[in-house]
Design a protein that fits this description.
Helix content is about 30%, strand content about 25%. By secondary structure, the chain is α+β, with helices and mostly antiparallel strands. It has four domains: about 120 residues, Topoisomerase II, domain 5 (Alpha-Beta Complex); about 80 residues, Gyrase A, domain 2 (2-Layer Sandwich), CATH 3.30.1360.40; about 130 residues, Topoisomerase, domain 3 (Orthogonal Bundle); about 300 residues, Neuraminidase, CATH 2.120.10. β12 and β13 form a beta hairpin. α12 crosses α15 and α14 crosses α15. It is elongated. The C terminus is likely disordered.
Amino acid sequence: MSQQVSIEKELRKSYLEYSLSVIIGRAIPDARDGLKPVHRRIMFAQHELGNGYTRPPKKSARVVGDVIGKYHPHGDSAVYDALVRMAQDFSMRDPLVDGQGNFGSIDGDAAAAMRYTEVRMSRLAGEFLADIDKETVDFRPNYDNTLLEPSVLPTKVPNLLLNGSSGIAVGMATNIPPHNLGELCGALLHIVDEPGCTVEDLMDHVKGPDFPTAGFVYAGQGLYDAYTTGRGTVKVRGKVEIEERKKGLQAIVIREIPFALNKSSLVEKIAALVNERKIDGVADLRDESDRKGIRVVIDLKRGTIPDIVVNALYKYTPLESSFGINMLAVVGNRPQLLNLKQALEIFLEHRREVIIRRTRYDLRKAEARAHILEGLRIALDNIDEVVALIRASKTPQDAKDALMARFELSEAQAQAILDMRLQRLTNLEHEKLVEEYNELLKKIEFFRSVLENPEVLRSVIREEIGELRDTFATKRRTEVLEEELDGIDIEDLIPDEDVVITLSRRGYIKRTTLDNYQQQRRGGKGIAGVHTSEDDFVQDFLTTTNHQYLLLFTNHGRMHQIKVHRVPEGSRTAKGVHIANLVQLDKDELVTNVLTVREFAEDRYFLFVTRRGMVKRSSASLYAKCRKTGLIAVGLRPEDELIMVREVDEHCHIVLTTNDGMAIRFQCEDVRPMGRSATGVKGIALRGKDRVVACVILAEEDTTSMIMSVSANGFGKRTNADLYRVQSRGGVGVKNFKVTPKTGDVIGAMPVRDDDALVLLTSTNKILRMGLTDVRSVGRATRGVRLVRLDEGALVVGFDRIDEREVVDGEE
């Protein structure tokens, strides 16, 4: 007869049953023995095979066959993978299987096939199955009801925390780190002696996870949360050493790595970062690891600061990673999140139950044996009468009945007398029997005291834990650090010295120390600067310091941000590296302007100036947080481009200069603050094909500043800023430079003082540095003096000022 069933209810019921099956029967360990069913079955199958640590190992295929044939109805690969992990000393803090053969490596190499490898239980694994034959745990039918298997092992080892566990079930997961056996035993003894202790008390014994791959772990708030609530995240680090090599060279050696990290993947990651120039200063990378331990060697280039490379390794590679602790385990057939004390208490309760059940079994056996010995003693005391009685009996049953009637014996005692060998009649055997009986009486008394006196039971637990610690505990491998694992601040290692940043039109950038440029007199030819290709030239040339932010503005109106010291250092004539190695640029995106700032203050502004005379003022704080892909800095009209960005405050004056020699001065307050993506307002009215080439920022009350203007053919002049009257924004301005075919167009202008120096760069990549006292001060509508004697066809393409009050001059 058909029956209607709600599909929703049926799906709920089926999914719930499946979820419970995965949680209880596969992915989450039991809190008592710390084992998942597959591991428990592997160990029990080896126990049944007699595959202990004192026996020769057996083929792994034999063990796997017994497991899947008798207890575990799953694939052989799943069982063998679990068996292999139990034998790996880099996966298990204290392996439970002694493996012989290839069981894989920390590089992720797979183990040999099960037909080639051999296994046996480790000595520690024997403690998991001790007393299992004494009815200490419940047994249940296997999957086909032909055999019995233990529902839990009567382990003496707190394995849930010792070797940890990880697994993903349905809707939940567990990730328990391994710990040190000696520390766990100390915490267990503390709970036995002080049941009311707190988690904080136990943390005096359990310092933190103890990974088989060693390394460092930070005992901070994350570890405290994990031990008090069951969930928390800790930082783990590998261990590195710095070795001194010949000729003053140095090398970084990685000796320990974080738990569960594939060493081969780590080396590949480091190599990729070196190729991407995210880690600089590496000359060679090789893996020299062997059976004695891990040794990954990173040879450094001469002059590289090792701590900077180490910091980059921790920052960009899994050499420093986070371990999320989630102490979820099965308690009473239900998943439960445990703190440190709960996990240890559940193990102690399990040991208490095992000891009680074992003691009951031993007491029952001892009492039965004592009962037999009492009968044998009666028989020996009346041996002549017993012999006569037996000889007079027609059958063994008659003899048994006669003995029971004559001496008031039980059937078991009478049968033992009938089974007694004649050698037991000797005086020596009689003494042994009496001695055995007396020993049994002592044991019976002890067993009863264990069952009746809680203090005696605690002493038994205490003794077992002490023996376990004395026999199996090893030294801690992972070092626990009390202080937070902060990365080394690279800027503390790099001097904040003056440097020169050069950026070519095709995007090649480099950083050079200012000492490379010696001061010369006006009219000199200069020294060789950066070497570029014939179709490239330097477009940005500025002096700054290593600790400042380098802001890169592109033709798309976007901004990218890096620290100055991240720009690779090069020689005076080096080409540099392409900017795409430092920031993410679109296919047709070019960096057109560079600005350096030390901080993004709210009362400071960025002033944007475009080629067609548009200006925009935006708060610097809007540009503090920059994504890897950059951010929108300014909106641009068609056929316009961003030529300059300057840091200003709202009380300054702005002077825009053009290539035809015009200039306009207006107050910064005339340009209201706008958002990042705004286009701006008109700053100067341009005539014909005139274009803005520079923006000069002057203080409102400044009466001493001079404006230095430079032309393409190497002419320049200083003009007092007072000669530029303040006008309204948007006018045509006043004459700034007398442009002639001899001088060439104006290429730029900037504010200077008498004690400044000037650095000029020519299109033939020569650099000239001179003092500004060599350039006389003249009026606005003049062409100035020759600053540099150019080679035929050469032009001045860039210049910048240097504050001589802060820079130590080079030799002339």
